[in-house]
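Hi there. Long-time user, first ticket. I'm pasting a complex I've been working with (about 742 residues overall). I'd like to know whether the download I got is complete or cut off, because the file seemed smaller than I expected. Thanks.
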Amino acid sequence: MHLIRYNEIVAERVGMMIVEAPYVAEHRKAGQFIILIIDEFGERVPFTIADADSKEGTITIYYQIVGKSTDKLSTLKAGDFIKDIAGPLGHATEIKKYGTVLCIGGGIGMAPLYPIAEAMKSAGNRLLGVLGSRNSSLLILEDPFKKICDEFLLFTDDGSAGEKGFVTHGLEQFSSGGKIDLVVAIGPVPMMKAVSDMTKVTGIPTLVSLNSIMVDGTGMCGGCRVTVGGKTLFTCVDGPEFDAHEVDFDELMMRHKTYRKEEAESHELHRHKCRLDGMI
Amino acid sequence: MNKEKQIMPEQKPEERIKNFDEVSLGFSSDMAVLEAQRCLQCKNSPCVQGCPVNVNIPAFISKIRDEKFLDAYGIIKGTNSLPAVCGRVCPQESQCEERCVLRNKFGSVSIGKLERFVADHERNTENVLEIRDTEKTGKRVAVVGSGPAGLTAAGELISMGHDVTVFEALHSPGGVLVYGIPEFRLPKDIVHYEIDALVRAGVEIVTNRVIGISESLDDLLEKYDAVFIGTGAGLPSFLNIPGENLQGVYSANEYLTRINLMKAYMFPEYDTPVIRGRRVTVLGGGNVAMDSARTALRLGSEEVHLVYRRSMEEMPARTEEIHHAEEEGVIFDLLANPVEFLGDENGHLKSVRCIRMQLGAPDDSGRRRPTEVEGSEFEIETDVAIVAVGNGPNPIVQRSTPGMETSRRGNIVVDGRTMRTSKKGVFAGGDIVSGAATVIEAMGAGRNAASSIDEYLKTGQW
Ligand SMILES: Cc1cc2nc3c(=O)[nH]c(=O)nc-3n(C[C@H](O)[C@H](O)[C@H](O)COP(=O)(O)OP(=O)(O)OC[C@H]3O[C@@H](n4cnc5c(N)ncnc54)[C@H](O)[C@@H]3O)c2cc1C
Ligand code: FES
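Hi, the file is complete. Here it is re-exported in full:
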């Protein structure tokens, strides 16, 4: 059992949770994730570790409320418990001095991106940052991210914060400004794909972190499989980061839809029950 | 002598495909005694030679005959730490029961069913888990993986007085026994009972811990005097044919894990979903394929096909599973092989295209090699396909341990007697060494490794 220390909505339909997981806090590296099971009925849901405090024995995760599990997460309060937390899982990001590193975050993708950006900065890289979301109410981690970037650009689809436009505009602006040695892009799949398509043309090595549907997260089920460079790989143990230029993003988007029907059904039932219980 | 084989009562096929309860209901005491009376108590006991861990079969059967069920239990436990499990899942027909002298004329003594009876009797009525007070040696052993190999090693080591910590990647210990083999064949309560017993005996079990990611084997060796690796053959093989990543194509591991471990059969009460296809096609012919097909029926699928490239004779699954699958209405498409998965414009699986096969000359495995019959392709309409064509070794520990010898296939190489790996202080056994095999062999390996670890801890010699 893992005690929740903090759990609040920090942006539109985005929650942030600080939860006790001393082992994970001590061993995690940037780029790794956990799998949590909320309660006895819970599914195994992966979340990237956005931050950790090994002294306090806590980790921080951000979650977008999209289905039953994240809805359930959002109703938990400080003092409640999470049944299981497995991890850290997956490969850590290869942190070293590349030169100039451009980190591009879209929406909730900012949560996994931030620790990577931080580590890249500490490794002596010049850090460029682009953050984008649909509107200003969806932004997370903008201030701390801005603080560690040598240069920073903010975009929203509707112009409610920063410039009006997409993160790809930021990529264009920075690309014309000088040499970029590595791009790290984390966000919705269409965003990562758009970035990847552009950097492929300009030949900038690009890393993406994939959020495939997972079950065990230990390489045992193959549910998280993705096609990378024509080969089938498992996101949980071969990734979650991959060379963007080799990833079959269309297939990933298609596989993301696998449980649309089941999820809608289960989420609706859950909300119905909650309404009956007077919770929402 | 009583020659008539006792028939174990079972749930009727039409009833049982609507539930996940155990299919076989077990012998009553009377039936067990009658069945035990059939045993001829052969002096040379061929059955014992057929058992991978050499359970003293005539001795335990003779105790059943005398209605000394607990004594019978004690005899089995002497060499087999999980009798309730093995009585249910061992391939007896190719082990002990194959050698029974009654086999050809009257049918073998139902050794597996008697083993099961004895273990169930202990669990349900006597409940005499002994906890021996052994003198502590002060040595610490880490066990990686909590399948039958790891659990057996842990049980042996704790009874030898060593401190034992088991690290398990998943949230629930038991390995394939909890995530793979379905409830209707092996009720999970039995597995939990055995694990509880280990915990009560002092074994520490740490779940949610993947060794090789957060901590390496070398990290463990700093804290423990020896390490046993029993990480199993959990890496699912795929067919590598077009369309395999469509929505609705599962590895058997994923399908069974969703349903057994995560209880997707009770979705949406439980949160984990699984696609309930109206038509389901399973690809493969082993126990894993049978379990998948029978599970699909229980999820309410109207038509379940099982496509296997050889004939019924070559099927590696336990005879009882094949028989149960047939009874329950699984449609066997034998001598056929999948060549492509076809989907609709949204990426949902629609059908699997197969080709007919014929059997040629025997291959390395001694089984006749199947070859394609040209131009014989056909399609099976299906919403869900389950790929059950084998599992490879779990690669995480090997990948993260430089200097540990592995085979070409990635299995850990050990000395067959001592179960020592090429790395000092590290032992391995079970499917991670042998490749996907059986529960009893994994247990046997765990047992051998434990005595070898004990010797190493006492002498310090490698
Ligand atoms: C569906 C199915 C049906 C089967 N039916 C039968 C049957 O009827 N009869 C029979 O005899 N055999 C059967 N088998 C085979 C049998 O289950 C296996 O041979 C046996 O379980 C192997 O035991 P093991 O201890 O070596 O490994 P496993 O049971 O595979 O256990 C390995 C454990 O190690 C854990 N692990 C892996 N990597 C790590 C890591 N890095 N860190 C920590 N933990 C890790 C895994 O999560 C797992 O819990 C079946 C197998 C399957 C999949
Ligand atoms: S989530 Fe099961 S293999 Fe990756």
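A couple of notes from our side: Residues A 214-217, 219-224, 234, 236 surround FE2/S2 (inorganic) cluster (ligand 2) (CB under 6 Å). Chain B has a mean pLDDT of 93.
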